[in-house]
Prior knowledge:
192 residues; mainly alpha; Arc Repressor Mutant, subunit A; disordered C terminus
Amino acid sequence: MCYSTKRKIADCVKELMHHKEIRKITINDIMAATNMSRQSFYYHFKDIYDVLEWIAIQDFAEEVCCDENTSLENWVLQLTNVIQKERFFCEKVVHEIEWPKILKSIKKPMERQMQRFVQSQDTTYMKLHEKEWTFCVDFFSTSFSYYMLDYIYQRKRLSNEEILKNFHFMISMLEDFPSGNGDYMGAMVAAS
């Protein structure tokens, strides 16, 4: 029952977004459209941004969560396909909400995939430099999240081939870095 109530509220918010700016959607608008009480809303969500975060997790993060057999390239394609499918919603959110507020919701699935990717690399080297790898996962997850926000914001329309070409290059840089001998500068020069 809890999920269906949340889903009903979330779907209502998505529908209202077709007619209003996000910041102008009120709890009264949502409750009138769903025939629910304010109490019902506040039982499930604290505010409209909480609803948007729930939507991001349910309709975005869960859809782009892959198993250990999925390559990073296929995951990127799946991610862009989800964005295309939910283009209106994504563009509306990216244009009307400050990006740091959005980052919290979208970074989690990015981070999971980056951790999975990093763990597929040389684990001996990772154990020796655990703090550095943790930093790298955080850095690339944050960077990739902001890149995807910009991709949506700029209304970029790239073909699957273009996306794969760009990300294949990035992935090949990550796979080659570090070289395993601790020569960070050598690995960076070789990657460029």
